[in-house]
Amino acid sequence: MKINTLKKQDGLLLLMVFTYSYLFYEQHLGFNLLIFNILLIAAISTVHPHPKTPVYWVALLACIITSLAVVVVNTRLAVFSSFVSMIVLLGYVLEARSSLIVSFLNALYSILSAPFVYGARRIHQSPAESSSAQVHSQKLKLLRFGSVAIPVLVTLVFLSLYASANPAFSDFLEQVRFDFITWSWVRFTLVGSFFLFGVFYAAHLVSLSEWDLNSPNGITRKRHRSQRDFHPLALKFELKTGTTLLLLLNGLLLVFHLADASYILGARLPAGLTYSAYVHQGVYTLIVSIVLAILIIVYFLRGNLNFHRKNRLLVILTYAWIVQNIILALGIAYKNALYIEEYSLTYKRIGVYVYLFLVIAGLLTTYVKVDNLKNHWYLLRRNSWVAFLLLIFMSWVDWDHIITKTNLEKGKDIDYTYLMHLSHTNLPELQALADQDVLPGLGLKHQLEQKQQRFHERMHVADWRSWNYRDQKISRQLGRLYP
Questions:
Q1: For residue 314, how many other CB atoms are within 10 A of its CB?
Q2: Are the C-beta atoms of residues 385 and 362 closer than 8 Å to each other?
Q3: Which side of the chain, N or C, has fewer Cβ within a 10 Å radius?
Q4: Cβ-proximal residues to 51 (8 Å cutoff; 6+ apart), any chain
Q5: pLDDT at 262
Q6: What pLDDT, in 10s, does the model give residues 33-42?
Q7: What is the pTM (predicted TM-score) of this model?
Q8: pLDDT, tens digit (0-9, with 9 covering 90-100), for 34-81
Q9: pLDDT of residue 259
Q10: What 3 state SS string does 325-378 have?
Q11: Where are the domains of the chain?
C-alpha cells in the first residue's frame, strides 16, 4: 500500500511539474493559472486525503475566486491573492483544524523546506531504522529508474551512430527542433519542481500545529496562591493603573475630537498651516495611535482582571476607548477623502482606507474579546480571516483603472508621470489624452510610446495560456484608437 502511495505521489508530482513548465514557461499569468490551480487542487486532494471541514471549502472557494480574478482582472494584487489562497488551502489540507495563520505558516514551511527535510531524512536514516518495506521500496524505485534510463541511454548511442553513418538521416534529425530545451527552461522547471515537491511531500511544523489545536479562544482564571513571588495586592494595583490610564486617555481623546471637529467645521486654522496640510498631517501617526490603543486594552484585560469583582469601571472605560478610537478612524477616513479630492488618488491613499478598515475590524473584535472574555489568540484568529477575505475582495478590483479614471475626471492637479507608471490597463485613456494633445511635454509622450511597445511585445509573446479579459479589452480599445 505504501509503495502504491509513493508511486501515486511521484507520478502526480512529475505530471504537475510538466504541466507547470508547459503552462507558464515564457508566458504571462492568465488562463494558465486557473487551469493549473484546478489541476493542483485535484492532485493534492488525491495525495492527501483529509476531512472536508467548512474552512477547507472556504479556502477552496477562495482559491477558485482569486484564480478567476487573474483571468478577468489580471492585476498584480489578483495574482498575489491567488498565491496566498493556494498556500492557505494547502495548509488546511495538511491540517484541517488549524487556524488560518498556522495553516499559512505550515504550508509555507512545507513549500520552502520539504526538499531539504526529505533529503536530510534520507541521508541520516540508518539501515537499522529502515524497515524492510522501505528498503524494498527504494530498490524497486532504483529498478524502475534503470528500466527506463538504460534503454534511453542505449538508444541515444545508436541514434548518434546512425546519424554519423547516414547524411540523410542526420539532415532529418536537424529538422526536428528541440530548441525549447534551454538552460532557462531547465532552470524554470527545476524551480517549479522545488516548490511543488513541498505540496506532495509535506513537512509539518508539528509543535506549532499542536499548540494551535490545544489553544482555546477563551480566558481562564489563574490562581496564583502557590506562587510566592506574587503579591496579593498586585491585581488591585493593576486594576487601579488600568482604570486611571484609560480615564486619562479617554479624556485626552475627547478633547482631541472636539478640537479636530472645530477645525473641520470651519474654525480658523493656526498661523502658517494650510487646510491641505492640516488634512494630511498626522494621518499615519493617528493610525499608529489606534493600534497602540488596542494593545493597551489587550494588555490590561489579558487575564485575571476580567474576573475582578470591581472591574466594572475599567470595562466601561474600555468600551468608551474603543468607541472613541472608531470615531478617530472614521475621522481619518474623512480627512483622507478630502486629501484625495485635493491631490488626487494614489495607492498610498487607498492603503490608508485598507489600513483603517482593518483597524476598525480590530477594534470591533477587541470589543467582542472584552465582552465575551476572549484571549489574544482569538483576536489573531478572527482578524487574520478579516484580512484574508478583504484580500480576496480586493483581488477583483482593477485599482490602476480606478486611480486613472478618478484622477482624470476629478483631479485638480493631475500627476501624469504617476499615471504613466501604472500598469498597461490605462493605455487607452492615456492614448486618448495624447490624441487630444493634452499630455504635457515630449517626455511623457515618449514614455507612452515605450509603454505601448511593452504592451505590444507582451501580446506578441502570449498565446491562449496567457489569455485574460483585461488584456483583450485593452487590445480591442487600442485597436479602435489605431484602426
A1: 25
A2: no
A3: C
A4: 96
A5: 78
A6: 999 999 999 9
A7: 0.82
A8: 999 999 999 988 887 766 788 989 999 999 999 999 999 999 999 999
A9: 83
A10: HHHHHHHHHHHHHHHHHHHCCCHHHHHHHHHHHHHHHHHHHHHHHHHHCECHHH
A11: 2-210, 254-374, 399-481
DSSP string, 16-85: HHHHHHHHHTT--SSHHHHHHHHHHHHHHHHHS-----HHHHHHHHHHHHHHHHHHHT--HHHHHHHHHH
Position 457 confidence tier, pLDDT thresholds 50, 70, 90: confident
Q: Note whether 65 and 38 are within 8 A (CB).
A: no
Q: What is the DSSP string of 283-312?
A: HHHHHHHHHHHHHHHHHHTSSGGGG-TT-H
In angstroms, the CA 60 to CA 43 distance is 13
> Nearest Cα to 95, choosing from 105, 83, 82, 81?
105
Average pLDDT rounded to a whole number, residues 453-470: 90
Regarding predicted confidence, which is higher, 388 or 289? Answer: 388
Mapped onto helix, strand or coil, the DSSP state of residue 218 is: strand
Q: What would the DSSP string read from start to end of 115-161?
A: HHHHHHHHHH--TTTS-HHHHHHHHHHHHHHHHHHHHHHHHHHHHHH
User: For residue 82, which phi and psi values (nearest 5 degrees)?
Assistant: -65, -40
Residue 483: Cβ within 10 Å count: 4
| SS3 at position 394 | helix
Residue-wise DSSP of 230-248: --TTHHHHHHHHHHHHHHH
DSSP 267: P
Distances (CA, A) of 149 to 153, 190, 349: 6, 19, 59
Q: Looking at residue 1, what is its pLDDT?
A: 41
Q: Which value, to the nearest 10 degrees, does the dihedral of the CA atoms of residues 68, 69, 73, 76 take?
A: -130
- Copy the grid coordinates of residue 170: 542526420
Cα–Cα distance between 26 and 103 in angstroms, integer?
32
**Mean per-residue pLDDT for 226-242?**
63
Crossing angle of the two packed helices 234-264 and 312-343, in degrees rounded to 10: 30
The model's confidence at residue 226, banded by pLDDT at 50, 70 and 90, is very low
